[in-house]
Each structure stands twice: as C-alpha cells, then as structure tokens.
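@channel anyone free to eyeball this complex?
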Amino acid sequence: MLKLILRRLVQMFLIMAVASLLLFAIFDTPDFKKRLAVQELGGFAVSALSEDSYQAWLSERGLDAPFYIRYTNWIGSILQGDLGFSYEKNREVGPLLLDRLANTGILAFFVFALMIPLSLVLGVLAGMKEGSVQDRTISFISVFTTSIPEIATAILLTVVLSLGLGWLPAKSAMIRGFEFQQLILPVLTLVIYDFGYVARMTRASMAEVMTSQYIRTAILKGIPYRRVVMRHALRNALIAPFTLIVLQLNWLLSGVVVVEVFFEYDGFGKLLLEAALFPDVEVVQACTLVAVAVAVVSQIISDIGYTFLNPRIRFA
Amino acid sequence: MAVTEIDAGPSVLDRLSRPKPLIALALLMWVPLTAYVMFGGRMDGYADTVLLPAVPATVLLYVLGVRAFRESWVAVIGLSLVFFWLLAAVSAPYLPLLDPNKPIAPFVTPFSEKRDVFFWLGTDFKGRDMLSRVIWGCQRVIVWGVSATMVAYVVGALFGLISGYLSGWWDEVISFFANVLLSFPVMVLFIVILNYLGPSGFNIVVAVTFASAPAIMRIVRGLALDIKTRDYVFAAQTRGEHPLYIMIFELLPNVRGPIIVDACLRLGYTTVAITTLTFLGLGLQPPDPDWGLMIRESAKTAMLWKFSYMLLVPALAVSSLILGFNLMADGLREMSLRD
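replying in thread with the prediction:
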C-alpha cells in the first residue's frame, strides 16, 4: 500500500515536471517574447525600439538567459506563489486565479451534489435487472443525454427555460453579486451532459455484481431482494463508480470552459479562454498548471481510493 | 425451390459489401469531399465537378450500410443520421440553395417569405439564409472532424503498436508521454495548442491528434499486448519478418474490431470539439459557414425567444450528427458482441 502510494507520488511529480517543461517551452518563442514586450511597454514603444534596446530590455527582464536557467527561475517563482501578471485584467495572476477557481468550485460543488446521487441511483436501478424495461429506458436516456454536446444542451436549456418560459436568467455573469438562480442553467447543463457516463459505468458494475455467485447464494437462501441489493450488492458495485466520480473532476475542468463562456460565468474556464485569446501567456500557463495538478491529484486519489476500498487488493 | 437460390449466386450488393469495394467507395466519397473543402478555393471553375462522383458513392454506401446493419435498428438510425449529413455535405453545390454568405434580409423567422424568397429556416442577424448555412456548414465540420480523427488514429495506432509489440524502453517512454498528455484536461490542451499554433483547420488536426492519440495508443497497446502471443505472430517471427511488417500486417488487421467502435465514438467527440472550438473562437475562421461559428455569432445577437431558431438550428444539427455517431457505435458494439 505504502509502496503504491510512493510510486504514484513519484509518477505524479515526474508528470508535473514534464508538463511544466512543455508548457514553458511552448511559450518561450521569440514571438511570445515580443508580445510580452508589447504588453509591458505598449505597441508603439516597441515598434520604435531599436534592436539593441530590445535586447537590453530582454536582458533586464532576464529573458536572454539560457533556457534551463529561465525555466528554473520560472518554476521557482511559481513555487513561491508568484504566478505572474495579467496584462488584460491588470492584476496579479495568483489572486485572480484563486477568485475564478472559487467560482468554478461553487459550480463544481453543485454539479457533483446533483450528479452523484442521480447517476448512482439510475445506474443501480438499471443494473439491478439487466435487460428489463427500466434498464433499457435508463440506458437509452443516458446514451441520449451524453450524445448531445454541452453547447447544444446549453442552448436548448436557455431557449426553453429562459427565453421561452422566462423562469431563469439567460446569463450567469453575476453582475449584482451572487445569485443562485443564475447558477441553475450552467449546473443543469453540466449535469445533463455528465450523469449518463457515470450512470452507465455504475450500471455495468452493478450488473456484474448481480451475476456473481454470492448474490445468487444470497437470493437462493431466501434473503429479501431489497436486502440483497442494499446490503450485499451495493457495497461492491459502488467501488468502481467512486473512482470514476473522482476522475470527473478532470473532465469538469475541460467541460466547464464551454459552459462558462456560453453563460458568461466568471470562472476558471472563461479566464483561461480569455487569456488564450488576448493572449495573456502567464495566465494561460498558470491555469494550465492548475488544471494539470488537479487532474493528476484526482487520478492519484482515485487510484489509491480504489485500492483502499477494494479489500481484494488492499489485503493482497 | 432451393435451386434458384443457389443459382442466383451473390447479388451485386453482396459483391459490393466486401472490404475492397467498400474501401473504394469510401475513398470515392471522401477524397473529392476533402479536396473540395480543403482546396476548393484554389480550384476555380471546376471545383463543383470534383464532387460529382461522391454523390452516388455516398448513396451506395448508405444502402450497403443499411443492409449490413439491418439486424439492429439502433445502428440503422445512427447510420441514417450520419449519412443524411454526409449526403448534404457532398451534394451541397448541386442543391438549389441560396448563397450562404450573401446577406438578403436580416431576422426573417423560419417558414416565411420576404422579398419573394421563401426561407425554410429563416435568416440570421446578417440576413444570410440559415438553411444553406447549415448545409454548407456541415461540410467543414465533417471534413475536419473526420480528417482529425484519422490522423489521430494513424499516430495513436502506430505508437500503440510499437509500445505494445516492442515493449521494454519503447513502451516506458511512449506510455509516459501518453500519461503526460492525458493529464491535461482535453479542452485545456486544445486551448494551449491552438493558442500556440493559431486557429485554423490544419492546426485543429494537430491539436486533436495530441489530445486523442494517447487514448488511442493505450487501447491499441492493450490489444497488441494480447495479440502478440498468438501463434501467427510467432510464425511470422520465425519466418524472420521485420517487426514493422509484423506490426502492420499481423497485428493491425486483428485489432481493427474494437478500434472501429472506438473510432465511431471518437468521431463524435472530435466533431463536438471542433464545433466547440469554433464557438470559442479558436477553430475555423469566418466568414464561411460552420455550425460552431453560427452558434458563436447568434449567441451574441439572438438572445430572444423570437430569434432562438438561430441558436436551435445549429445546435440540433450538431446534436443529430453526434447522436448518429454514437448510435452507430452502439449498434456496432452490439453486432461485434453477437459474433
């Protein structure tokens, strides 16, 4: 167990190191340096700048040092909490990113609060009796909802619930402070897109458990069906979905971009996109690093959780 | 009674349902369409004739597909949805459509007439015909979506075969880089790559390759690990065949079953990704019509119940295409389990 955790941690460290190296190398071209100069000094000043004074500016910023020195400097400042400066938002990246991450966190909290019970209940109901009408209905619904891309779900929900019926606001910009009503459409969009996948995996896991020997024995012994499902089947059937749900965090960080941009919700995804379009290189780098960190950590939690929950592996 | 059946022999459709004619038909449909979308701007005058052979090829492929899938109605529905858009894509120049980029009359609601023109799906905020924009738009979505998936598959399968068959250091290195790429959330990876390369169709292909190839590589690697212990692989090794020969002629044909199902699903993902990226402003560029672009432009102007058709039309179009791919994948999986 301890060995496994250690191996995973080393792996995580290596992945983070390579990912950050790639990320740094991508944005280390002369082109991007020039853009940085434009952002810092203004476009006019840069066009008037002679080659010598541009080189002087580069060395003043430490941009003409060898690649590995700049990389270590960059990593060092990030580890000290200095994530850089956003020229578009005119703010330090650190606090800015924290703000936006908190907003996305609120969104993610409600998504998970709704998605986990929904998908688990539906998955268990479907997997309980494989091939029954209820199984086929639930399976069809989950295939159908995952087939519709998020952007289309967002549009359908907005058109029906907001433009047509007028129940909910169409945008979630939260201009007058936090309003729960504005959060409903983005949350619904993400849940509708995502629950089908988890439900299908839960169904597969449940169906597998229900065909196992010990469930058959329990039923043949005459234990009431409800009790067999609730006490014997569920425990084993929910191990796989647990790891899956943790991994949905990774998915959410990419799914959230479209939804936040469409509903104009000020979260992590919108920040990343705006930074990419501006381009605000340090914001893009910081956002990506955070995303990779979240993904890697959730992967580890899911792996360790799986071995911890599954006694066959834990005691092996 | 039975004699006639024996005498009849395989019908024309049966003969066409073999791999070689099928591949020939698919190429006959695909090559003109890709050439038209990617290089159509450079072929002046004869651009429209290029697509001509693709139309009958598409119809014939659809008929053959329905015949092959007839046992699963789910797959037939999926196939029909996909081929509806494929047919629309290849026959767009021959349909009596208005110019998709020409402003006529803005904000005309669907099924109404204005300036003596009947608009089935209305016009957008610039007055361009929605019907022709949707049909022309599917060309770009389909061509770039399928091209990107194919490139990702070639790269992913190649690395998967190397990693699975050669094992050892190759496997360690390739798997590690796959893990690094997989640890980026997909959309974040897209944004970073397209931010670096700049938005265009070819760069989308590159971005999709980076995002999808690691997952494909993992699948192919797993299959290759399983298959390389088979006798026919040993036979080839004993004959002294080159590893590359074994990978391509012994392993690759035998991993195609599970790969086809996955490819169908992945076509769906890629199409979604392209539409989404265009919506975000990182994908294909205006003014040519594209579903993501239609959503992007309308989301800024059409936030009213009366004009919601501007958003609904492209949204339903992309949903139906994805649904088609997914149902097809489901049907294929069902059929492969039955065999």
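from a first look: The two ends of chain B are 29 Å apart (CA to CA).
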